[in-house]
Every structure is written in C-alpha cells, then in structure tokens.
Amino acid sequence: MKVLVLGAGVTGLAAAYLLARDGHAVTVLERRSGVALESSHANGGQLSYSYVAPLAGPGVVGKLPGWLLDRDSPIRFRPRLDPAQWAWGARFLAACNASTADQTTRRLLLLSFLSRDLTRAAITEEGIDCAFRHAGKLVVHSDPAAYEAARRLVDYQRSLGSEQEALSREECLAAEPSLAGIAHRLVGGILTRGEDAAECRLFCAGLEAAMRTGNLGVRFRFGTEVRQILAVGGRVIGVQTGAGVLEADAIVMAMGAGSTRLLAPLGLRPPVYPLKGYSLTLPILADGAAPRISVTDFAKKVVYARLGQGLRVAGMADLVGYDTGFDLSRLDLLVRQAREAFPDAADWTVLNPWAGLRPATPTGLPILGPVPGLPNLHLNIGHGALGFTLAMGSARVVTDLLAGRASPIPLEGFAA
C-alpha cells in the first residue's frame, strides 16, 4: 500500500520504519526541515519500560492545590479560553484514582515491554549510534509516605514482569554515589536494573538513515505542511499540502500535539493536549560526580540521564496550551534543582535549554489504530512523556493493524 506518515518525530519515524519493512511504499511528511525537531529533540533520554505509572495517579488530586499555588511546583496550569484544555483537565481529574491508574499501568507495561525488544533490535540491526546503554533507573523518594507506597508496589510490579528492588537511603547511595548532594533528604528509592537510556534525536536520525540508505525506499518530504486530510465515502484518500494533493491508500497520524488540528474537520476530537516540558543538556566536567544510573526525583518530577558526555536534565508538566517559548522561571527552577542534586557534575554555564510539548491523554494511554468510520486512517498519538519508550511498540501495533493482522497486545484502552 501507499502510506503517508504525518510527522517525523520518534513515533512517526518508528511507524514509517516498520511499515516500510512490512513492504509498504511509505512517504513521511514533516513541516520542519528535518527529523526530531520538536517533542523528540531533547527529551529526558530515559527509556523507562518498567516505570510507566501515569501522571494521573490516586495521590494527585490531594496535591494539586499545593502544586497550583507553589511557583516551584512540577505542574503548572495556566487557564485559557480553550474548551479542549478544560475538557482535558476534567478527564484527567476523573482518571486520578487507583483503579484507573492500575489498569493504565498494566496496559502500558505490555506495550512498553514489546517496545523495549523492538527498540533494542532496531539499534543493533541498523547500527544506530545514539548513546544507547543499559543504564538502569533509580527513582528516589524524599517523602516517607510516598516511598512506602512505592515499596508496596514492588511485588505487584514484579507480578507484571517488572524486576524492581526497594532500596534504603544507604543502598541508594551505594548504587549511585553521586547522589551524596541530596543524601540528607533521601528516605529510599526503587531500582529497576533493566531500563535503558539513549539520545532520542540521534535514534531518530539513525532510523532516517536506515530508511534512506537501505532497501526500504522511504521518501521524506520536509518543509511540507499538511493543511487538510482528504476523505471521501468513509475513507481517507490523501492530504492537501501547500504544494498540492498527495494521494494515499492509508494515512498514519503521528503529529503529536498538532494532530488535533487536522483531525477536528473530520469530526474527530481525541483527548490529546500538550503538556509542556523543559530540558537542559549539560557538559559533564567531573565523571564521578555525574550519575551513571538514570535517576528520577519523584517529589520534584525531575529526571536525569547520562547521554555520552552530557547530562540530560528534564522536568515540568505545564498545562499552558501550545506555547513553546521558554519560561525563564521554569528553566531557573530546573537549574537549581539539578545543581542541588549534582553540584559538581557539570558546566553550569552551558545549559543548552529546550522546551517541547508532550502530546498527553488524560489517562496516559496513547491512542493507536484505525479510526471508526475511516478505517484507513490510523492514529499513533498521545504518548505523553513516554514517546521514546513506547514508539517502537506503538509502531508494531499500527503496522499490524494496518496490514489486517491482529494486534500484538490487547487493544482495550488504546483503540481510537
């Protein structure tokens, strides 16, 4: 089939790669000048296959008032005259319960474990140089109640296939000595040894190179803005771009937070809204002072990953619409938190700041597969902060469904 993939971020490229390997004639359309120039450009760098619990957890509602009043909160809400923002927020609050969070976690683990195997295979088979390593992941806690709740989940997570260990403060420091700067506020942590780290932007570049130089025959049309998805008689037939019409037998929508603009004229309103995040990429100056294990500060919602000779610091979840500009107060907060954690690790005069929009659903489950009423339009959107982690698994689901095969995982909760 002739397939158009809309979007050249990690989810779009992963889909294009597996679709081409499945024998389809694939063209990737991207409005920017290259791959991974938006949400995939400088994300957290953690491939977090076992730690996929959604942001909408059972303890969130009680914390929200304090977060909304605290200028240093990991979550910020800027109200807008946008019905989609308020509708998303209402559905997010409705998802903040133990039952929904448990169900979401179970479903995401199936997708993430599938994605883990496919991501590792692609990196190995294509020789992709993306600072990939088996880093492990340590989630550190400073609140005793939060740590106890996490510790109680270890056995449950193990029953789902996730190998995790609950560590004391002393064991956290033994596993990652560079945490000495915040030892005074640690009460414990959860270690997952099987997690990976990699530079998403370089992974995307590697997929592009594999699709260009191999026998896959994928075409890329950069600087191409899709203005409309064309549909006739219950099927999509192509897209209208600034340069004219491009026809297709099937379309895969993978434009992240920008997807809703093109889907709305078709009567489709998937619950995807941007959560803005920030990152820093700091040159490592003192090797022993920078973490080797990927670290997540649970209370502050900040993640750290060593990527080659750089330290990636990422955080924030700001519900502020489609604004991609830098809020200097948020960048300053991220710098302060990172310097507290690893004061001697990096050159703090070279920040390489970045901001991007995570396309999030209220529950945390991405939306995958064909659209009811338009069976040859497939969605691959709504991955939130787990786009890199889930990209290859999502691509497998979309590729199999587009070919008329059964999904490799149960589709309940993911289906469009």
TrEMBL record:
One of its GO terms (biological process) is D-alanine catabolic process. Pfam families: DAO (PF01266). The keyword Signal does not apply. Keywords: Oxidoreductase. One of its GO terms (molecular function) is D-amino-acid dehydrogenase activity. Residues 2-401 form the FAD dependent oxidoreductase domain. GO terms for cellular component: cytoplasm; plasma membrane. NCBIfam families: PRK00711.1. Belongs to the DadA oxidoreductase family. This is D-amino-acid dehydrogenase. It comes from Muricoccus roseus.
